[in-house]
Amino acid sequence: VATYLRAIHPDDAARVQADIDFAFAGAGAYESDARVLAADGRYHHIISRGEVLFAADGTPAVLRGAVRDVTSARIAEQALDAAEERYRTLFDAVDEGVCIVEMIRDDDGKAIDYRFIEVNQAFVRHTGLVDAVGKTILELVPGHDPAWMTLYGEVARTGEAVRYENDSAGAMNRWFDVYATRVGGVGSDLVAVLFTDISERKQAHLELERLAAGLAEANRRKNEFIATLAHELRNPLAPLRSGLPLLRMAGDE
Fold first, then answer.
1. Rounded to whole angstroms, how far apart are CA atoms 124 and 69?
2. Minimal CA–CA distance to 37: which of 81, 69, 60?
3. What does the alpha-carbon distance between residue 221 and residue 199 come to, in Å, rounded to a whole number?
4. What are the φ/ψ torsions at residue 39 (nearest 5 degrees)?
5. DSSP labels for 67-122?
6. How far apart are CA 142 and CA 135, in angstroms?
7. Do residues 128 and 141 lie in contact, with contact meaning Cβ atoms separated by under 8 Å?
8. Are 36 and 8 spatial neighbours (Cβ–Cβ below 8 Å)?
9. Do residues 16 and 47 touch, judged by C-beta distance below 8 A?
10. Which residues does 42 contact at the CB level (< 8 Å), separation at least 6?
11. Where are any strands of DSSP class E within the chain?
């Protein structure tokens, strides 16, 4: 045991010693994980399991067991944890609302609802839906437009992403640019939905459209007025134009 403990990483030695002492104290079963200095001069992650065999007088006699090198698995776990941390940081940092939803279908395969699996902070800010994870949209918003279920259901079924502008709620006068794509391969019923609040941009666009329409209408009325005025001016001058030759003839005489 002393030889084994000398190879343990200093930061893990006290914990491994405690596990061994616990087994020697009568627990019998032994299990521990630690970093151990290997023959290649590097620390390897190992998991050791075994048992303590006691002598007839009850004193510990032998610690026997097996050791498994799990270095590759630990490195993979650390890489996965780092990737998850980067994903989580980006997921929560973006200003766009993001949610992962799982489609709920009836016996015929028709999408009738969806459950929120994951949401970011911007999702809550944009939608006002708090504690949405684990709940369905119909639980949170009874009477929600079934067209959304149909749309997301088709995205999951076909794997074809869609993008569109949506008037979230007429009373709120808010517009969103929405992008939906399937998460996973064929058969997955998970859909990622990203949306950006474009209400200000949409309002500015609508205001420009109203101004353009107003200018077009003003221009049409101006042209009508000029045409009417020209017509009215021509009619009083008609007798004068026809009388000018007579005046010239009278002058000649």
1. 44
2. 69
3. 32
4. -65, -25
5. EEE-HHHHHHHHHHHHHHHHHHHHHHH-SSEEEEEEEEE-TTS-EEEEEEEEE-HH
6. 12
7. no
8. yes
9. no
10. none
11. 29-37, 43-54, 60-69, 97-105, 111-119, 162-169, 174-183, 190-197
Q: Give the closest residue to 62 by CA, choosing from 30, 107, 98.
A: 30
pLDDT digits (tens, 9 = 90+) for 97-117: 899 999 999 999 999 999 999
DSSP bridge pairs for 176: 166, 197
Buried b (16+ CB within 10 A) or exposed e, 197-211: bbeeebeeeeeeeee
Q: Is 177 exposed, middle or buried (0-12, 13-18, 19+ CB in 10 A)?
A: middle
Distance between CA atoms of residues 10 and 14, nearest Å:
8
Question: How is residue 124 written in tokens?
Answer: 């809550």
Which two tokens mark 149? 């279920």
Mind listing the pLDDT tens digit for each residue in 41-94? 888 888 888 888 888 887 777 777 788 888 888 888 878 777 777 767 776 767
